[in-house]
């Protein structure tokens, strides 16, 4: 598995020059590609563009120049796939010219020196970029880009999935909007509270609405218009960081709980395509479109793998409508699921139980709270789940804070501050081009 570590760098003349050279190359590749299309009806291939424009490009390493063309053609291929599928309304191919663009280095241009300095080659005759790197592991790929406020270093490192699960239990996870996750094992259940996330989303929407109304009253491009636009970007960026921090902390705490409860397999509900053709009213549609289920499920998956757990995906169709006791299906009203057979339980937990049962492909084992051997479905009430709430100042396990990798053990440590929450170890306080904060996430 590859994880991405991030380091804030600030702004320097060297980075500006490199980003400007990458932007000029992107513009050249895009301009000549569309000229061939318009005048000759011929689509240049990536290899042809790299031969024409990237070979011997001054100011960048040869593979960095090739990576710029790779980015252009990756964007073009993505647009063509959506065009062929008919789902490209409002989307346009990559055609705009760029003044600045991200710089990428592949493994042959990266070297970690013995003194802990990361050396990024910029081609013969050009000064390399030197960065104090807090990790002792040489990255496989490096990228420097603008994050809206300063330059940011993003390094991909290979991390071994060396965690050992404590047991062989199977947990079903139903990802939701009110509850970020409902988890059910054969004998326990939890819900991860999502109300703090909903509060941040409401704050984000109010801020955007308030500043948009003020911006619309100013002349486009004026000094006051630019000042308000900068304020909007700054405030929304802060809220986005808070949301990401919350998702990291909640997913870390959840995986720590599962690891302690001897879970070896995690089954996550697959919600692919849920946003297509939705029509529940403006407010409900807005909530669904802002629902961070994909990001939260991704965090659960890679942190579970770091703990040595097996991760599986199962379709969620009708899992919240089917009674786990008798198998009858009906749509519940409210948060409680009540079946005619006498079974009662939390609706999200019913979904998690059915996701787990769907993966296992068989009835619950003997001794399960939902079934009793030889008696058919058990008519009872599902036990209330244990709540997992967000606390802003969660911290990692002190034994793992000093690690400079992606803290694979921290994902299973005390309910605390996961990677990406902003806390740094002593090793991470080393100076960089402009001192920074180290973050990490899965690639």
TrEMBL record:
<keyword id="KW-0238">DNA-binding</keyword>
<feature type="region of interest" description="Disordered">
    <location>
        <begin position="361"/>
        <end position="443"/>
    </location>
</feature>
<keyword id="KW-0233">DNA recombination</keyword>
<dbReference type="Pfam" id="PF01385">
    <property type="entry name" value="OrfB_IS605"/>
</dbReference>
<dbReference type="InterPro" id="IPR051399">
    <property type="entry name" value="RNA-guided_DNA_endo/Transpos"/>
</dbReference>
<dbReference type="GO" id="GO:0006310">
    <property type="term" value="P:DNA recombination"/>
</dbReference>
<feature type="domain" description="Probable transposase IS891/IS1136/IS1341">
    <location>
        <begin position="162"/>
        <end position="274"/>
    </location>
</feature>
<keyword id="KW-0175">Coiled coil</keyword>
<keyword id="KW-0815">Transposition</keyword>
<dbReference type="InterPro" id="IPR001959">
    <property type="entry name" value="Transposase"/>
</dbReference>
<comment type="similarity">
    <text>In the N-terminal section; belongs to the transposase 2 family.</text>
</comment>
<feature type="domain" description="Cas12f1-like TNB">
    <location>
        <begin position="293"/>
        <end position="355"/>
    </location>
</feature>
<dbReference type="Pfam" id="PF07282">
    <property type="entry name" value="Cas12f1-like_TNB"/>
</dbReference>
<feature type="coiled-coil region">
    <location>
        <begin position="197"/>
        <end position="249"/>
    </location>
</feature>
<dbReference type="GO" id="GO:0003677">
    <property type="term" value="F:DNA binding"/>
</dbReference>
<dbReference type="InterPro" id="IPR010095">
    <property type="entry name" value="Cas12f1-like_TNB"/>
</dbReference>
<dbReference type="GO" id="GO:0032196">
    <property type="term" value="P:transposition"/>
</dbReference>
<comment type="similarity">
    <text>In the C-terminal section; belongs to the transposase 35 family.</text>
</comment>
<protein>
    <submittedName>
        <fullName>IS605 family transposase</fullName>
    </submittedName>
</protein>
